[in-house]
Amino acid sequence: MSHDVMPSGPRPSRRAESPDRGRKKDRKRRRGLKITLGVLLVLLLAGGGTVYWLYSRLDGNITGVDIDKALGDDRPEKLPTSGQNLLVLGSDSRAGAENRELGGGGNVSGARSDTAMVIHIPEGRTKAVAVSIPRDTLVTRPECTKADGSTLPSKKRAMFNGVYSLAGPACVVKTVESMSGVRIDHYLEINFAGFKDLVDAIGGVTVDVPQDIHDKSSGLDLTAGPHKLDGTESLAYVRTRHGIGDGSDLGRIGLQQQFILALLSEVKSQDLLGSPTNSYKIADSVTKSLTTDSGLASLTSLGEFARSMNGVDPGSMETIMLPVAYDKQDPNRVVAAEPQAGQLWKAIRKDATIPESAKKSPATGG
Predict the structure, then answer these.
(1) Helical H runs in the chain?
(2) Share of residues in the chain with pLDDT > 70 (%)
(3) Which of 315, 314, 313, 308 is nearest to 47 (CA)?
(4) In a 3-state reduction of DSSP, which class is residue 233?
(5) Which residues of 301-310 are buried (b: 16+ CB within 10 A; e: fewer)?
(6) What is the rounded CA–CA span in Å between residue 304 and residue 55?
(7) Which residue has the higher pLDDT, 351 or 24?
(8) How many Å apart are CA 317 and CA 310, to the nearest integer?
(9) CA distances, 272 to each of 278, 283, 310 (Å)
(10) Cα angle at 80 between 77 and 83, to 5 degrees?
(11) Where are the alpha helices (DSSP H) in 181-248?
């Protein structure tokens, strides 16, 4: 059987494309490039298990506080190998109807720092430690400048959670730096409504309740064992003090630390890139209720910081309560226990291993 053979020599040239056809192809290439760059941008801003979408609405949601300007140069020295230190506050502001309802109603004015943690991320950012400061701790509050420009004088034996309501975030940072000698690099605050919305947006958080909790004050009623909590239940869980331990603030700190780690793990485990709608919902609920230092008060800055934390596994984060002892004058209050507290802060300042002795608190709330 014979076969036709293609003639040798140069192949005939293709028909020249029309200008319109060429422009269409260029538009397709540009559109494809924009989509690719958009996906890359989202991936670059994906950090800590969540995605910060570059929408102006989200960027405008964030409230920024210029901590550096408020505090000036009278601050602890930033050591070159001291890692990063983040002060995280959960505030019980009653501003707005939703916050008042979550705060238990009533005619309570102002706000207090209901939860406070110093999160230390050592150099390399592969692990972290969270130090909880009990809200009932008596501290020496340094002199601070209030939002209206007036001066709040220094005071000994001031209750820690009252500093926020009297002089705001910058004074809380100054108080923590004064009591610890640790330079705080960043500040992050979320209010009650934002906390609730975040938990609801991710579909709830599962915690292993260590013992039966029956808190008539909050209505929280849980048996020991695993429970998936919605936003309202989660708030009651981290705020309960009558349903566990001796009814003091110390008893609930363990619950708060446990819940924060469970929340971080849940957010990190979800495929947020696979669900843009859910990602936006989560980002919106967080940013609406977020206050940060000015260095983090944008989606770009938050994304970069979150991406740098991506190697930190919440499951390996160590949680410690600031070692405290019951105050001799008022057993309903606590004071920093020495030498344990001093040893703890020194290790964090120097980015060193925290001694086991510095993790033991004479007052446990049990």
Answers:
(1) 19-44, 56-61, 67-71, 97-102, 162-167, 169-180, 192-201, 231-239, 249-269, 276-287, 299-308, 340-349
(2) 74
(3) 308
(4) helix
(5) bbbbbbbebe
(6) 16
(7) 351
(8) 13
(9) 7, 10, 14
(10) 95
(11) 192-201, 231-239
